[in-house]
Amino acid sequence: MNNLYSYAIEQSPKTPSIILELSSVLRYMLYDCREKYVALQKEIAHLKNFTQLNEMQIEERGKVTFKTENININYRIAPLILSVFIENAFKHSTASQSEDIFIDVKVKMDDKGGLDFECRNSFLPVTNTDNLSNGIGMQNVKKRLQLLYPKAHELYIQNEQDVYYVHLKLQLTQGET
Question: Which InterPro entries is this protein grouped with (predicted)?
Fold first, then answer.
């Protein structure tokens, strides 16, 4: 909202785009996330909108990529299960760096319903990120994965040098979309 406000004050041509992205994100969170599982294509669309909305705060300070591959629309996923990782990538990259930011997100599927999610982002370990929340979102997503995908997920998190890396494998189920 703060970004939207500043763009509106500047009468930036980006303001309508920000409003559309924010509207899509809010609509998804308010209406589509009421179910235990949602259509994978809706979750991916939400992730793209969320990424594009947050990318605007980086502007020319870095690069954001979001790639999908072989997404099968017949599968369902727990809503917002992947958002935490992307949200953390933006939060820690933008809080710790004023330039050379990178955030790379890849989502792909195999032919048997296996979802492969990767999120890699830059960050500087000694910065103002100490004041950010202490990983409550990460704790919650780990609990959700245990509850919703017992023995059907693998989560690997690596924090080395100036790169934070998340790799999540989920076995999805088919359902009505």
Answer: Bact_2-comp_sensor_kinase, HATPase_C_sf, Sig_transdc_His_kin_internal
